[in-house]
Amino acid sequence: MTGGLVREVELVLADGGFGPGSGLVVQDREDGVLVTWSADALIRPTILAHASDPAVRARVTLTGIRSALDHALAALFLDAGLVTTVPADGAVLVTRPALL
């Protein structure tokens, strides 16, 4: 891909309130631009506080938050005329629509 789509994705994210410090990472790939979110800053304190709890994994599962973020990003990119797919948990692939 070219840097043009990366820059476009970054601008769409910034316009949508997902600027620096949002935890979103934008990566240029051959098949599009991959947007991922690292929840490390959010879950690390919980893991540390509950390290001895055998069910700590259940405390840090962020399925609902990830799903909400995926939907918000999809709506944001759709509004900007871009296409999203979810190739893996916690990732959104952004591409331009196919030309007919």
Instruction: Specify the overall morphology.
Output: elongated
Radius of gyration: 16 Å
The SSE string, one letter per element, is HEEHHHEE
Helix content: 40-55%
Taking the sheet with the most strands, its summary is: 4 strands, antiparallel
Concise synopsis of the structure shown:
The protein is α+β, with helices and mostly antiparallel strands and 100 residues long. 44% of the residues lie in helices and 20% in strands.
Features:
single chain; 100 residues; alpha+beta; 44% helix
Describe the structure.
There is one protein chain. The chain is elongated and about 55 Å long. It has helices at residues 3-15, 40-49, 56-59, 63-79, and strands spanning 24-29, 32-37, 83-85, 91-95. The chain has one domain (3-93). Strand 3 (83-85) and strand 4 (91-95) form a beta hairpin. Strands 1-2-4-3 form a four-stranded antiparallel β-sheet, with helices on one face. It contains four helices and four strands. With 100 residues, the chain is α+β, with helices and mostly antiparallel strands. The model has no long low-confidence stretch (mean pLDDT 84). The two termini are 20 Å apart.
Write the layout of secondary structure elements.
Layout: H1 3-15, E1 24-29, E2 32-37, H2 40-49, H3 56-59, H4 63-79, E3 83-85, E4 91-95
Antiparallel strand pairs: 1-2, 2-4, 3-4
